[in-house]
Description:
Blueprint: E1 3-8, E2 15-19, E3 22-26, H1 34-39, E4 48-55, E5 67-72, E6 75-84, H2 86-105, H3 119-136, E7 137-146, H4 153-160, E8 165-169, H5 177-180, H6 186-193, E9 198-201, H7 204-217, E10 221-227, E11 243-250, E12 253-259, H8 266-273, H9 276-289, E13 293-300, H10 307-320, E14 328-335, H11 342-362, E15 370-373, H12 379-388, E16 391-394, H13 404-411, E17 418-422, E18 435-437, H14 442-454, H15 457-473, H16 476-503
Helix pairs in contact: 2-3, 3-4, 9-12, 10-11, 10-14
Amino acid sequence: xxxxxxxxxxxxxxxxxxxxxxxxxxxxxxxxxxxxxxxxxxxxxxxxxxxxxxxxxxxxxxxxxxxxxxxxxxxxxxxxxxxxxxxxxxxxxxxxxxxxxxxxxxxxxxxxxxxxxxxxxxxxxxxxxxxxxxxxxxxxxxxxxxxxxxxxxxxxxxxxxxxxxxxxxxxxxxxxxxxxxxxxxxxxxxxxxxxxxxxxxxxxxxxxxxxxxxxxxxxxxxxxxxxxxxxxxxxxxxxxxxxxxxxxxxxxxxxxxxxxxxxxxxxxxxxxxxxxxxxxxxxxxxxxxxxxxxxxxxxxxxxxxxxxxxxxxxxxxxxxxxxxxxxxxxxxxxxxxxxxxxxxxxxxxxxxxxxxxxxxxxxxxxxxxxxxxxxxxxxxxxxxxxxxxxxxxxxxxxxxxxxxxxxxxxxxxxxxxxxxxxxxxxxxxxxxxxxxxxxxxxxxxxxxxxxxxxxxxxxxxxxxxxxxxxxxxxxxxxxxxxxxxxxxxxxxxxxxxxxxxxxx
Length: 504
């Protein structure tokens, strides 16, 4: 059955596990996250489908299930699975996306390397996604494409199906032209995005950067700019914008430029945080710390996250403030990435060596300043640490959004706790009541964590109340509603244009 909504995303919308020798598709364990939010859109369609890849030893194997029908709490929908070899995944995702695109998107020009990129394979995989979307889409369907590894899908899809309405959402930062234009494939990428009806970003800065990049290559006109809401303006954060482009034109077509930050499911997190068992578990963590204050840092092992910089700041703070030794502990969760990728392997090694040096310098038999955890912590366990932590220290060098800081705020149903947040995380645009810090400045980083530890209770609660208001306001559900509104407006614009053409 043709689908009036097609979601194109590299991840499958379920957990695929083996049970008794059979493959079973399980519902995602937590409703908190992007996949459940995207699936909630299935309720807006008579029939929906999802396009994802699946690793296959032999893509030509006739026994490979390219299409599976799923029925879960979000309804009945089709999943089209593209069989990709390990070589294709490595080329398209690990090399092109992670080694060439990722450093440029995050403004790490010195880590950019396009020598190993196999651009024909990237095109080939994107074409396969576009073909699958074209097959699944009903006449006039909405097609929603996600993230930079599928940059070329809109352009290919527009060639195949001029009738569909295409939205593309960018989940990473989008840099200014002098950085983005380092990519030798820039014109092909941007031309593909300009074939969309909607191009979405987390914050106005990224939207403005995209329009600037597009205008550096093509004759693009800005038809409308709008003032940014007061909640998203702060002189104390590096990524604030006071106005942003919302509608551009290219080759006679109008394209919406959306700025809407992904949030978290605040209600779900609050429900877990108020569970008596979770509250008891958090109390046990606190009791185990004695009179020690707990600082919590959670992120992935990635050079963009600034893990080593944060640890070095903690080292300086302990060195300059001996009274804190034995009185504060840093729980540094840095989920190990693929060590086969040299950039991540070096980052992981740097984190381990720095944490070991600090524990060696300052640790005693009774107290180790850093608990380094290099594995993912299940969300239900993470909640208890959110509740137990005096401070959440989230200081990426660059981050498209960052949902960990929002999870921490949503979990603090007790109204206490301090969030220290990098001003170069997209989330800082909304969460400007945090202690905002510049991770490139030693003084700023060190003073921020000291300020958080010394903050009076009244100030802690005042800041947290404002942070919780914003997290609830800009929830993941609100993000979904904004995406739906963008689709509705795009469809309305196309209807007006079609009516004008027919009456001419």
